[in-house]
Specification:
Length: about 350
C-alpha cells in the first residue's frame, strides 16, 4: 500500500505556520515574508509535498479542467494529417488562459470509452459536425457544456469557426479551367462514416454528411459539373495513391485531378510519377490545405493554403470566453491560392 500523500495541513504543522499561510505560499495570491516562504518550502520538500492537487482546485471552481476535442474517424488516422495536429496546437494555445488539459474524443456512438456525452469536460471543440453529433448536441448543451465547431454547422447558438471551403475550391477549379483542362476528376474525402473508396456513380450533395467534403465539392462542381468523382475514405496519401491509379486507368485519361486535400494530392502525384506520367506536362494535380508536402520533390503542390493554426487558436479562444461567461461569436477565415509546379496547360490531344 502506498504512503499517504502529504497535505497542506502537514506542511503547515511541519513549518509551524497556519494552514492558510502555507496555502498562500503555493498560490502566490498574498505576500508573505521571505523567511516564512523558505520555511514552508523547506517543510514541503521534506514531506514530498509538491503543491495543491489541481483537480481539487478545478472542482472548487466548478470545473473539471478538461476540454474535449471531438475528431471524426480513427484517432490514429487523424494524427497522420498535419492539418489536424496544427489545429490541435492552435486550440491548445487558445485555451491556455483556462490552464486546462485536452481530452481527444471520437465521434462514434459504437466506440467504448469516454464520449462527448459522458466525459467530464468543461467545454468541447468539434472538428466538423456529423449528423450523429448534431443529434446529440442538444443533450450536451443541456448539461451546460459550451461547444464550438470548426468547419461545420452545429445549429443555432453554436459558434462556428468557418473556412471558405466552397469559394476556395471553386477558385482552384477555375484556375484549372483557365489552363485549358476539360477532362478533370474530382477526388474527395469521405461522404459519410460508411464511405468506401471508389467512384461515385451519382452525387446528392444534400446527402453528404461531412460538411467539408460537401462544401468543397459544391465549389468544384460549379466549374466542372459533369466531371467524375472518386471518393476516398479519408485524407491519406495511400488513399490518394489509389485514387491516382484509378484515374490513370481511365480511357481517355483525364488531364487533371482536383483533390480536396494536399495528402490526397501527394498520393495522386506519386501514382502518376510511378506510372511514368509526367507532372504537369501530361497530368496536373491540385490540392487543398497548404501543408508541407514531402516525398514529391522537386514538385510543389498547387494548392489553397488555409490558416489551420489560426482556426484552432480562434476555436480555443472562443471556447475559453464561453466557459468564462463572456458572450462571443464565431470567426470566419479565408484560404490563399498558392501556385506550385504540379499544374500546367492541358496537353494537346
Amino acid at each position: 500500500m502506498s504512503a499517504r500523500r502529504a497535505t497542506i495541513a502537514d506542511v503547515a504543522r511541519e513549518a509551524g505556520v497556519s494552514p492558510s499561510t502555507a496555502s498562500v505560499v503555493f498560490s502566490g495570491k498574498t505576500q508573505v515574508t521571505d523567511a516564512t516562504r523558505q520555511r514552508v518550502l523547506a517543510a514541503a520538500s521534506a514531506l514530498g509535498y509538491t503543491g495543491p492537487d489541481p483537480r481539487a482546485a478545478s472542482l472548487r471552481r466548478g470545473r473539471s479542467g478538461i476540454i474535449g476535442v471531438v475528431l471524426g474517424g480513427r484517432l490514429r488516422s487523424a494524427f497522420l494529417d498535419p492539418v489536424t495536429t496544427v489545429v490541435l496546437d492552435g486550440i491548445s494555445e487558445g485555451i491556455a488562459p483556462l490552464d486546462a488539459a485536452i481530452l481527444l474524443l471520437r465521434d462514434d456512438a459504437t466506440e467504448t470509452g469516454p464520449s462527448l456525452m459522458t466525459a467530464p469536460i468543461d467545454g468541447a471543440v468539434l472538428l466538423g459536425c456529423s449528423a450523429h453529433m448534431r443529434s446529440s448536441l442538444d443533450d450536451v448543451r443541456g448539461r451546460g457544456i459550451p461547444v464550438v465547431v470548426i468547419e461545420g454547422d452545429a445549429g443555432e447558438g453554436v459558434p462556428q469557426i468557418g473556412l471558405d471551403n466552397e469559394a476556395a475550391q471553386r477558385h482552384i477549379a477555375e484556375y484549372t479551367k483557365g489552363l485549358g483542362h476539360e477532362r478533370v476528376v474530382h477526388v474527395t474525402m469521405a461522404f459519410d462514416a460508411s464511405t468506401r473508396a471508389g467512384w461515385a456513380p451519382s452525387v446528392d450533395l444534400d446527402a453528404i454528411t461531412v460538411d467539408v467534403t460537401r462544401d468543397r465539392l459544391r465549389g468544384a462542381l460549379e466549374v466542372y459539373p459533369d466531371a467524375p468523382i472518386y471518393h476516398a475514405t479519408g485524407s491519406l496519401i495511400d488513399e490518394g495513391y489509389a485514387a491516382g491509379q484509378a484515374i490513370l486507368a481511365l480511357d481517355p485519361r483525364p488531364t487533371a485531378a482536383i483533390a480536396q486535400t494536399d495528402l490526397l494530392a501527394v498520393g495522386i502525384v506519386r501514382a502518376a510519377l510511378d506510372a511514368g506520367v509526367r507532372v504537369p506536362e501530361d497530368f496536373s494535380v491540385t490540392g487543398f490545405d497548404g501543408i508541407r508536402a514531402d516525398g514529391i520533390a522537386p514538385h510543389r503542390l498547387t494548392t489553397m493554403a488555409q490558416p489551420a493554426a489560426d482556426k484552432g487558436r480562434a476555436a480555443g479562444e472562443v471556447l475559453a470566453a464561453l466557459i468564462q461567461g463572456t458572450p462571443t461569436s464565431g470567426v470566419d477565415f479565408a484560404s490563399r491560392f498558392r501556385e506550385g509546379n504540379t499544374t500546367g496547360p492541358a496537353p494537346q490531344a
